[in-house]
Design brief:
The structure is a single chain. By secondary structure, the chain is mainly beta. It has two domains: 140 residues, SH3 type barrels; 43 residues, Ribosomal protein L2, domain 3, CATH 4.10.950. The protein has two helices and ten strands; from the N terminus they run αββββββββββα. The strands form two sheets. It has a six-stranded antiparallel sheet with strand order 5-10-6-7-8-9, with no helix packed on it. A four-stranded antiparallel sheet has the order 3-2-1-4, with no helix packed on it. The longest helix is centred in the C-terminal third of the chain and has 10 residues. 20% of the residues are buried.
């Protein structure tokens, strides 16, 4: 009796990522119309890879910012006429070339969209009258409006991925939190009833990895099928 492949058992599709907004500590963005903010606490959020600064603005309202390396409780984040210091917020036009920045706005006033992951930082490559050229962590350069704001420094939590999982259980929990299918098992390691490549009759398990030309959806496991079959006939034309 035939069996469905594992990708067939999982259904025709659906969301590959569930946002899980209930795990978020809140909306993390740079506020507008504020002069300064005092760091009240440093918290972690399962929704964010970097630590977060819980800040209190000069008008008494509270908010969240992405924490830079070296931040501590009691620091003051300047937002108007800011000095060149880690954590402060300023327009790109006011920052020098070569400065390390993060949490860059895509358009002035949106609160920050680029370079927000733990351990990341961008660098101001060049300044012109109508645009600022920034080198992103991917080494790609992007143009920004001179009035787009950014925070100075490097995002904290850079060594987060260096810790080994040690146990398969830890890896399972991490993948479960991201709604990822894990573990990934190769078809040749399965039983014959679970996958076309399954079975262990020989030391070289599996079957030819070219799927049949008329295979149904989901059966296309292995290499891409040949474009044509049979013996090539005809006369080869030489390039002149």
């Amino acid at each position: 009796m035939g069996k469905n492949l594992i990708q067939q058992k999982r259904g025709k599709g659906g969301p590959t990522w569930r946002a899980g907004g209930f795990r978020s500590a809140g909306d993390v963005k740079m506020a507008t119309g504020k002069n300064s903010a005092a760091v009240v606490d440093i918290i972690t959020s399962r929704f964010h890879s970097a630590p977060l600064l819980k800040v209190q603005y000069n008008d008494g309202k509270e908010g969240l910012l992405i924490a830079p390396e070296g931040a501590k409780v009691g620091d003051v984040v300047q937002m108007t006429g800011a000095d060149i210091a880690v954590g402060n917020i300023a327009p790109l036009a006011d920052l020098p070339e070569g400065a390390l920045i993060y949490n860059i706005e895509a358009t002035p006033g949106d609160g920050g969209k680029f370079v927000r992951g733990s351990g990341t930082a961008a660098r101001i490559a060049a300044k012109q009258a109508d645009k600022i050229i920034v080198t992103l962590p991917s080494k790609k350069q992007r143009e920004f409006h001179p009035q787009c704001r950014a925070q100075m420094g490097v995002v904290a939590g850079g060594g987060r991925l260096e810790k080994p999982f040690v146990k398969a259980g830890n890896k399972f929990k991490q993948m479960k939190s991201k709604n990822r299918y894990w573990p990934l098992v190769t078809g040749a390691a399965m039983n014959a009833l679970s996958h076309p490549f399954g079975g262990k009759r020989t030391s070289r398990k599996g079957r030819p990895t070219i799927a049949p030309k008329n295979a149904p959806p989901g059966r296309m496991v292995g290499m891409i099928r040949p474009r044509k079959t049979g013996r090539a006939r005809g006369t080869r034309v030489k390039n002149k």
